[in-house]
Design a protein that fits this description.
The protein has about 450 residues and is α/β, with parallel strands linked by helices. It has one domain: Alkaline Phosphatase, subunit A. It is built from 14 helices and 24 strands. The strands form nine sheets. It has an eight-stranded mixed beta sheet, with helices on both faces. Helix 2 runs antiparallel to helix 3, helix 3 crosses helix 9 and helix 12 runs parallel beside helix 13. The longest helix is centred in the C-terminal third of the chain and has 25 residues.
Length: about 450
């Protein structure tokens, strides 16, 4: 092999598959996928290991007092209408609306003492998912890169044609920066580092043109994968393109990606257990990490359309919290426990880390207010970053425990406060990312990916 060939091979191995997929599929800034691959060919990334993270993000901020940190001895306005139930783990209780959680408590750990200071939804997105405060001027997105973008930049996909990081589920808003859901924000980085958003039916917004065929149909993309592969073979396209075009085509035609969305390959009984649309997203997420994706964040809807529920944002003016919880938590209970059991039953619990959390908790005291839509008196809770609960499962970590504690009103930690930066450090360590890694900000100044410390009770 010649020196030039060796150099070409080295460049080829250094390509960011996640960045390539994103640039080609989202058509950012008019940069073509092959051009982006050339731009990123010298990126100094670390090859991803055999570990992965699925992050269930509960946009709106679920109440800790109606889920994982109940205070049955508090006054009624604090404790709410529901009661705690015992679980398979002594001293670990959960809401009565989470009976399936109770049966498998030895397969998860609860953190009850996460705390930060940002009480607005998008400010808290940034604080929780990037570890840092601040919004980009004129936007709802964090100033700093969020976890999905950091993982996508720090890791090179371990499987050819599979991105290192993706987002799934409920899009929070659309802007000039593209669609947004928690976890994918690129902050002050170039938008080429923004992880792609996928759905259970395929990859969105495909813009790469191959022999005149533009892959831009979300719903029909799985079908088009097959047609493009046939055309590539019959027209001899692979013989006429350079290595970067070759890589671009491989990303769009990779069987690993295509197959991850095909739930017909799963046992129908398991698909039924996952249930509704976001449950199927959770199943696809499991399939994506098996296919080689390192970080999948799912924006989990918390509402019931017929009730006009706005995610998990349970202000009294938005929704009656007791009513929506009776509809919401059984679905959440079913999907989360099905995913946990699926991960364990498939022997993935050492390598796949599952996290379920929102951007903050809810106020210790509830209040009554007239619903904006219903015009009826409703009971709810306001934003509260002082304390929130987080569910952790798998990752080879210690399960069946409670980390931290809050005061009698679930308002603030009184034991083992956890900062979002500590959760980030735990995630990066699990993924094999060096915690001393620095990336440049918009001015070229090196910034650490985290200032946190891995949570010692887990590792």
């Amino acid at each position: 092999m010649t020196d030039n060939s060796n150099r070409r091979q080295t460049k080829h191995l250094a390509v960011s598959r996640r960045g390539a997929l994103q640039a080609g599929l989202l058509g950012l800034g008019g940069l073509s996928l092959p051009a982006f691959l050339r731009q990123q060919a010298n990126a100094g990334e670390t090859l991803a290991g055999d570990t992965a993270v699925i992050f269930l993000f509960l946009h709106g901020g679920p109440s800790q007092l109606e889920t994982y940190d109940m205070k049955p001895s508090a006054t009624r306005e604090v404790r709410g209408p529901f009661h705690p139930i015992s679980t398979a783990v002594p001293d670990l209780q959960a809401c009565e609306l989470l009976p399936l959680h109770a049966k498998i408590a030895d397969r998860f750990t609860l953190i009850r003492s996460c705390t930060h200071g940002d009480g607005g939804h998008f400010e808290a997105h940034g604080r929780f998912m990037s570890g840092n405060p601040g919004l980009k001027p004129g936007t709802f997105e964090s100033t700093h890169p969020q976890m999905g973008a950091i993982v996508g930049r720090a890791l090179k996909s371990r499987v050819r044609g599979v991105p290192a990081s993706v987002g799934m589920g409920l899009v929070i808003y659309k802007s000039a920066h593209g669609e947004y859901l928690p976890g994918i924000g690129n902050g002050y980085w170039n938008s080429s580092w923004r992880p792609p958003i996928v759905t259970k039916t395929g990859l969105p917004n495909a813009t790469l043109t191959i022999e005149g065929e533009r892959l831009n149909d979300r719903v029909g993309l799985l079908r088009q994968f097959d047609r493009v592969r046939r055309n590539v073979d019959s027209r001899g396209v692979m013989e006429s393109v350079d290595e970067f075009n070759r890589t671009a085509i491989e990303i769009l035609t990779a069987d690993k990606v295509r197959q991850a969305f095909d739930l017909s390959q799963e046992d129908p009984r398991l698909v039924a257990q996952y249930g509704n649309e976001w449950g199927q997203n959770a199943l696809v997420a499991r399939r994506l990490v098996e296919a080689g994706v390192s970080f999948v964040t799912i924006s989990v809807p918390g509402g019931v359309k017929a009730m006009g529920a706005p995610g998990w944002d349970d202000h009294a003016i938005n929704i009656d919290l007791p009513t929506i919880m009776r509809h919401r938590l059984p679905v959440y209970d079913q999907v989360v426990t099905t995913l946990i059991n699926d991960i364990y039953d498939r022997g993935l619990d050492k390598r796949v880390l599952l996290i379920a959390a929102g951007e903050f908790g809810r106020t210790p005291k509830g209040n009554l207010a007239t619903g904006t839509t219903t015009k009826k008196l409703q009971w709810g809770r306001e934003h509260w970053p002082g304390a929130q609960s987080i569910l952790i499962s798998g990752g080879g970590f210690r399960m069946g425990q409670v980390i931290g504690a809050t005061d009698r009103h679930a308002a603030y930690p009184v034991k083992r406060p956890i900062d979002p930066q500590d959760l980030m450090a735990t995630i990066y360590k699990h993924l094999g990312i060096d915690l001393a890694t620095h990336f440049p900000d918009s001015s070229g100044r090196p910034v650490a990916i985290t200032t946190g410390t891995p949570i010692k009770e887990l590792v």
